[in-house]
Amino acid sequence: MRLAGKRAVVTGAAGALGGVICEHLAREGARVAGLDLDPVGLDAVAERVRTHGVDAWTEAVDLTDFEAVQAAAERLIAQWGGVDILVNGAGGGAVSFFHEMTYQTWSTQVDRNLTTVFNVTRAVLPSMLAQRHGRIVNIASVAAIAGGRLVRGATAYAAAKAGVVGLTKALAIEVAEQGVTVNCLAPGAQATPGRDNDTTERREALLSQIPTRLLGEPDHLAETVVYLASPATVNVTGVILPLDGGHSI
Ligand SMILES: NC(=O)c1ccc[n+]([C@@H]2O[C@H](COP(=O)([O-])OP(=O)(O)OC[C@H]3O[C@@H](n4cnc5c(N)ncnc54)[C@H](O)[C@@H]3O)[C@@H](O)[C@H]2O)c1
């Protein structure tokens, strides 16, 4: 029970990785608040969290909406008194080749993958600073550090996720003396249900670019989140950790 009594917020909680992260945090004793666009998915995750004997709180909210996020965080903090752990997992890519990309596609990708991180972190950070303790784990992508080699047409996604990398490092420095750590995972392709429809050729093309020839396991990623949220990493901050089987070497 490395996180007994801790209060965690997970964005993208209804998603493939977010749900697994919520469960791993709950298994270690943390209460979990899930934020996502998808209310049905949030209900299912809350149920899984409660089976571990901890409190679950959810709110369906568009995390690109600054005011709505502030309001949701205020409601949560009024109830829980503060937040110890924030996992910024909401996001997702869209394939669009740069020479034909619309402004709408660009701004949607930046909003979904970077502005959401600003909005939620901005809403939660003051409570962490007030208590002089907090753990922020951002989920970027290998695309941020190795371009979009796994998926062509990912420039907007890669740029937004690279923004998350920059935000992680700059914020880590800004809050380091106040007991708040800020770290970032840069996952490669994960074995989430979204990959189940890959053709054999598509799967081989992916694996051929990954030295270990393995997709990432969501359970392993979630364990890394738990580690970065745990007391063992009090002196670990500003780290960008690729979970990509060596793809970005
Ligand atoms: N799955 C992978 O292979 C992989 C690889 C690298 C990085 N990532 C990153 O990991 C994170 C989780 O990925 P996943 O595979 O679980 O994706 P997913 O699509 O299953 O989950 C993403 C979740 O984010 C939510 N979301 C998106 N925009 C939102 C918004 N504006 N407001 C509220 N919620 C919003 C979606 O509703 C969804 O539930 C994403 O940031 C993704 O970019 C995933």
TrEMBL record:
InterPro entries given for it?
NAD(P)-bd_dom_sf, Sc_DH/Rdtase_CS, SDR, SDR_fam
SUPFAM superfamilies noted in UniProt = NAD(P)-binding Rossmann-fold domains
The source's domain of life comes to: Bacteria
Gene3D superfamilies with a match to the protein in the record: NAD(P)-binding Rossmann-like Domain
Q: Which family does it belong to?
A: Belongs to the short-chain dehydrogenases/reductases (SDR) family.
Q: What is this protein called?
A: 3-oxoacyl-[acyl-carrier-protein] reductase FabG
Q: From which source organism is this entry?
A: Plantactinospora mayteni
